[in-house]
Design a protein that fits this description.
Layout lengths: L6 E2 L6 H15 L3 H12 L4 E2 L4 H6 L4 H5 L5 H9 L14 H9 L3 H16 L5 H17 L3 H14 L5 H8 L3 H6 L4 H4 L2 E12 L4 E11 L6 E8 L8 H15 L2 H7 L6 E7 L17 H6 L6 E7 L3 E7 L5 E3 L1 E2 L10 H4 L2 E5 L2 E5 L3 E2 L8
Parallel strand pairs: 1-2, 5-6
Antiparallel strand pairs: 3-4, 4-5, 6-7, 7-8, 8-9, 9-13, 10-12, 11-12
Helix pairs in contact: 1-2, 6-8, 7-8, 8-9
Length: 380
Amino acid sequence: MRQNRQVGTCSFDNGPIVQQKRIASLASKTQNWNVFVKSFLNIMNDNVSRNANSNIASNARKTYIEELAKLDIDIDKILLGSNIRIDDTTRTHYFSDGSKIAKAYANLNSDKQEYFENKTFEIIKDEGIDAFNKLHFYNTLKNYQYFIKDSIKKTELEKDIQNLVPFLPKELKSRIENPNKQLYDLLYREKKELDNFDVKSSIIAHIGSYSFDGDCWQAELIDKKSDGKIIYDLTMAIGEEITPLQNFIDKKSELKSRVEEHSFLQKVINDNKENKVYIKFTTDKSFVNHRNRVTEDMPKELVDELDFENAISLYVSFPKRKYVRFVLLNNRNLLMLGIPKDFELPGYKFEDLMTKEEKSFLSTSYNSFKIFDENGKMLN
């Protein structure tokens, strides 16, 4: 079973995780504890193979760390040890994902959390620790703060994290104080245009995502002096040339006005003060049906009926980390894609919106593919 690793067909295929659970179960019955711990770490880290893996699906997965914590083993040694980065020429060290370590500790009891915080503080302050591990544990701590649910504790951690910055090497401090420096360096010719936005986040990397595969720069931009309800989610290709910000700016006014003038979409966005809309833009357009990922699960008759030319790809974020993808068509109709369980829209219950339920091992996804006009009337 270990030599024949299952490959997930999509982001929501939990088959590979189920296989790792079976390996862990068999290893415990035969008292092969090395295999058991490694399989459990694979589960916690989501260290399995999938043909596609979206951030939304990945963030929704559990770490199952509570089950491992029930056993009589030194869980801190396993978690913190696997988070250390070393030059492992013999390939025997297990490297955990820092964000998964953070999520695991956020789900453990207060004693474990206090131990993690204190040890991480010690590592970052230790002059004998190399710059790479300092940065890695700093990022792990930032992720840990994100996963903590207690708002008071979040605020306290923010202060603690700020107090750790002076203990980092100067080259790291400059990047932390200006996290979008790479983006500004890359787009230095367009600094004037970029300064019209608040940069919520940015990366320059080789990615594989829902709408793009390859080298690119990504940024989440918000109009300065706006209420922050509209966020522009840009993915811009880097090939022989760097895709300029100007590609987006040329179409920004049209994209923004179409979203703001759609009455039903605005009703959805403004139904809760925490709701935000992310307008996607990839290289030179908003809607991209990359590898047919948007339409592959859609009924063929619906695909044939709809015209996706000049469509706007967007998603709305709701409280409790719920996201729903929409496509705003050029004829002003709004197509809704997948929805979370028990999701509702103004005037519509979950049962009205869900058209197809897809079960895959331990997860269930729900497709909608409902179309609404700008007044919110359901058209199919």
